[in-house]
Amino acid sequence: MALKLEPGSRLVVATHNPGKVPEIAALLDNRFDLTTAGALGLAEPDETESTFTGNALLKARAAAQASGLIAIADDSGLSVRALEGQPGIYSARWAGPTKDFALAMEKVRERLEATGSEDLSAWFTSALAVAWPDGAAVVVEGQVHGDLVFPGRGSRGFGYDPIFRPTGHDLTFGEMEPAAKDAMSHRARAFEKLKAALF
Fold it and tell me: How many whole angstroms separate alpha carbon 83 and alpha carbon 72?
């Protein structure tokens, strides 16, 4: 049977970061009743996979099984070419237990300086997984390429947005209007694929 999502369905977003919910709700055209794994008191599974898609699937399946609801999870991060793709799946971990992304961005800058490379190219990846309580799942991935700017600029968005400037643009993700970023971000590209698959 084709997997479909019915508008108005209650979905659990497999995150303990409430900041992700408005963005995900908007990308899903506000068609669903969203709650979070954090709000339901679900444990955060250990992200043991070696890829974004693997971790997104692991988080979605854990939330679906624990809640009995359809779950959506994203795993996303920044990859820097001169750092051989780091921080990659460890993007959140570079921010430490307090999720201090100023610290994480400084770590990226220091490690880039240590390489001596002048290559500032980087890309964001977003993997999205939707899992049903019976184990069925769909997973997609989107990317956006650009380069890094130091010091970071702008206070919008979250994570590494202030140091990432998408190809063909002067503004960083941290400076862009949310709608402009949402129109072209890695997460938006992944959501387009997801909507094509599920709606």
Answer: 30
Task: Please indicate whether residue 147 is annotated as part of the active site.
Answer: no
Sheet order of strands, 164-166 included: 33-36, 10-13, 70-80, 121-131, 137-148, 164-166
Go through the chain and tell me how many residues it has. 199
Pairing of the two strands 10-13 and 70-80: parallel
Query: Quick one: three-class SS letters along 16-29?
Result: CCCCHHHHHHHHCC
Single out the residue of 110, 102, 92, 108 nearest to residue 155, CA to CA: 102
Query: Per-residue pLDDT tens for 146-157?
Result: 999 999 999 988
Q: What is the dihedral of CA 153, 159, 165, 169, to 10 degrees?
A: -90
Residue whose token pair is 């900041």: 19
Q: By the 8 A CB rule, do 89 and 61 touch?
A: no
Cβ pair 123, 141 in contact under 8 A = no
* Residue in 29, 33, 74, 75 annotated catalytic: 75
Between 125 and 178, name the one with better pLDDT.
125
pTM above 0.85, yes or no: yes
Q: Using an 8 Å Cβ cutoff, are 154 and 136 in contact?
A: no
Task: Count the helices and strands in the chain (H runs, E runs).
Answer: 5, 6
